Automatic annotation (TrEMBL):
Organism per entry: Aliiroseovarius zhejiangensis
Pfam families named among the record's database cross-references: His_Phos_1
PROSITE patterns: PG_MUTASE
Gene: gpm
Protein name, entry field: Phosphoglycerate mutase
UniProt cross-references to InterPro entries, sorted A to Z: His_Pase_superF_clade-1, His_PPase_superfam, PG/BPGM_mutase_AS, PGM_Phosphatase
Length: 196
């Protein structure tokens, strides 16, 4: 299935990223490093997209993604449309916890995290499954009318890029991740990583 050109961006570093806490639907503010990452992305986006009037910007409504979007889009003078389908995976009972805290409370799942880290992310009590995220992503992609810049989150970014590329949940483990990076998906170039 054809999907429009995408520029996918994970939010900048947050205080809970530094503390290694699972955020999910909870939020924590960007760090100084996270704000710098967003600003650097803005410079790169301006270089890549200035003068293009066919591109729209979308963001998860979560604070860390919106703040990243505001800082990154400032050089272009673009506004961003919020879309709840771009929210991070809901981690249920794991939200706000570190990996050590999760392992202590759910020891049976600790080995799964080592053997199959992708599947592990979709086993949190009261959280979302891969199918939940795939449905959200597919609904979003099916309604895109043209190229888009998307501000989202770590897990959602991987699922979004995997669905665009036609990869399954296990193959998406091979996709690169990280903050301060733009993932460019296009019919001509496939999946490319753009750094400043």
């Amino acid at each position: 299935m054809y999907h429009p050109e995408l520029f996918v961006i994970r939010h900048g570093q947050t205080e809970w990223n530094v503390a290694r806490r699972h955020q999910g639907r909870l939020d924590s503010p960007l760090t100084a490093q996270g704000r710098k990452q967003a600003g650097d992305i803005g410079v790169t986006l301006h270089r890549l997209l200035a003068g293009r009037d066919d591109v729209r910007a979308y963001s998860s409504p979560q604070g860390r993604a919106l703040e990243t979007a505001a800082l990154a889009l400032e050089p272009l003078g673009w506004s961003v449309q919020r879309d709840a389908r771009l929210c991070e995976i809901a981690f249920g009972a794991w939200e706000g916890l570190t990996q050590d805290e999760i392992n202590a409370r759910w020891p049976a799942l600790a080995s799964l995290a080592e053997v199959d880290p992708i599947s592990w992310h979709f086993t949190s009590p009261g959280g979302e499954t891969y199918l939940d995220l795939a449905r959200r992503v597919d609904a979003f992609l099916s309604q895109l009318a043209g190229p888009a810049v998307i501000f989202t989150h770590g897990i959602l970014s991987r699922v979004l890029r995997a669905r665009w590329l036609g990869l399954n949940e296990h193959d998406m483990l091979g996709l690169p991740g990280g903050q301060g990076i733009i993932f460019h998906l296009s019919a001509e170039g496939g999946h490319q990583v753009i750094e400043k």
